[in-house]
Amino acid sequence: MTPRRVRFTATAGRHVHREKAWWIENRIHTGVFAAEFEEALRVLALLPGAGTAYLPGGIPGLRRLYVPKVACHLYYTFDEAEVIVRALWGARRVRGPRLKP
Description:
Layout: E1 5-8, H1 10-26, H2 31-46, E2 52-53, E3 63-67, E4 72-78, E5 82-90
Parallel strand pairs: 1-5
Antiparallel strand pairs: 2-3, 3-4, 4-5
């Protein structure tokens, strides 16, 4: 099985940067974020169907994968060649992110 390429939208890039900065500033075990995030990306590259469909996002094929130790969801779409990460969003928030198709 060949892993898919993983790329990020500008929105997702901002979300990741913000969340990582928060972890570095507010957590003792700062490496947890990087380790969990990298593992989630490995899963998406190999098994993008592992996430669950997220219909409220309004984007055909949008899915999300829960990253437990970080308490966030990775929102993404995929095809045969790549996974496009569209957002990293706190799982405790009342609603999901607003995404552009």
